C-alpha cells in the first residue's frame, strides 16, 4: 500500500507539473502472460458475447442456482445453514418446488428490472421463512441485491438494503428455526452487506473506466483540434508572407515593365511589344498568386518559412526597389528603431511593404509617397501617404469582389498582434491614400523630432 501510494503521489505531481509519465509496462506484461493474457482476452470475449446475446448470461445464472438447489430438493434432510432442522417434513414436496421456482425464475429479469426482481424474491423469501423453510435457492436474494447495486437506482438500493436487513433479522429472530439468533443475524447481515458492496464496487469501477475512456476520447479530439489550429495559424502566416514578398516583387516588376514599354513605344523600339507581354504576364501571375493564396488560407495546411525575416534595416533596399519602379518615396524615421524587437521590426517592414505595393498598384508610378516610422515610449507609428489620383470611394482599393484585399487584411492582422490602431482610407485632400498604424509595444524613448502631421 505504501509503494502504491507513493506511485500515485508521483503521478499526481507529474500531472501538476504538466509532464507526461511513460505508460506502465504492467498491463502489457499481464497481456503477454500465457495465463493472465488468456483471462483478459477471455473477459473481453465474454463482454462482447453478452452485448450480443444478454439472455445467455441470465440463463446461465438461473441454471447455476437450479443446480445448487436440486440436491437439497431431491436428497436433502431439511437442515438450515445453522445446523437446525427446518419444517419441510410437515409440508408437501410440491410446496418446496413451488418456492424454489418462485425464488429462481425472477432472476431471468434481474438485469432488465433489477428493483422489481429483488422485491419479488424478498417477498418470496419472507414467505418461506415464515413457514420455517431454509431453501438453497434463497441465494437468489443475494444475486438480485447484487444486480440492483450494480445496475439499479441508488435510491431504490437504499430501500432494498433496508428490506433485506429487516428480512434477515425477522428470519433469524422470529420466523425460521435458529437456536442462536445473534450469530445468525450477524452471518446473514454480513452476506447482505457483501452482496451490496461487491455490486457497488463493480459499478464504481465501471463508471471509472467509462470516465477514463471518455477522457481519452476528449483528449484525442482536443489534440486534433489543437493541431488544426496550429496548422491554420502557421498556414495563414505563410500565406501572408508570400503575399507580402512575392506580391510586392511582382508589383515592382509590372511597374518597371510598363514604364519600359511606354519608353520603348515613344522611341519606336521593337522591344515595346515584349515589354508589354512581360507586364501582362506579371499581372496574370499576380492574379494567380491571389487565387493560390486564397486556397492556402482556406486549407490551413502546415508550412514554415526558412528565410531570415526582414527588419527595419531592410526598409532602405525596399524603398530603393520602389524608387526604381518609378515611385518617388520620401522616408523619415523618428526614435531608436534598432531597439525594437524582431517581431515588431518585421511587422513594421510588412506594413510599409504592403502600403507601397498598393500605391504602385492603384496610384501608379507617377505619384509620390511619404513613409514615416516613429518610435516613442511604448508605441510605434507607421504612416504611409501617397498622392495618387482623386479617390471617389473607399472601395477603390478593395478586391475584385468589393471585399478588402489580402494586403489590407494582413495589415490589420499584424497590427492586432500588438494591440494596434489602424487607419486606412482616402486622404482629406481627396487625392491619394493613407495608411496610419499605431502599435502598442515597448521601445526605446523617441529621439527629439517634429511631430507627425
UniProtKB/TrEMBL annotation:
Residues 343-445 form the Histidine kinase/HSP90-like ATPase domain. The keyword Cell cycle does not apply. The chain crosses the membrane at residues 55-75, 91-109, 115-144, 156-178, 184-202. InterPro entries: DUF7134, HATPase_C_sf, HATPase_dom, Sensor_HK_TwoCompSys, Sig_transdc_His_kin_sub3_dim/P. It comes from the Bacteria. It catalyses: ATP + protein L-histidine = ADP + protein N-phospho-L-histidine. One of its GO terms (molecular function) is kinase activity. It holds the Pfam family HisKA_3. Gene3D superfamilies: 1.20.5.1930, Histidine kinase-like ATPase, C-terminal domain (3.30.565.10). Keywords: ATP-binding, Kinase, Membrane, Nucleotide-binding, Phosphoprotein, Transferase, Transmembrane, Transmembrane helix, Two-component regulatory system. Its EC number is 2.7.13.3. This is histidine kinase.
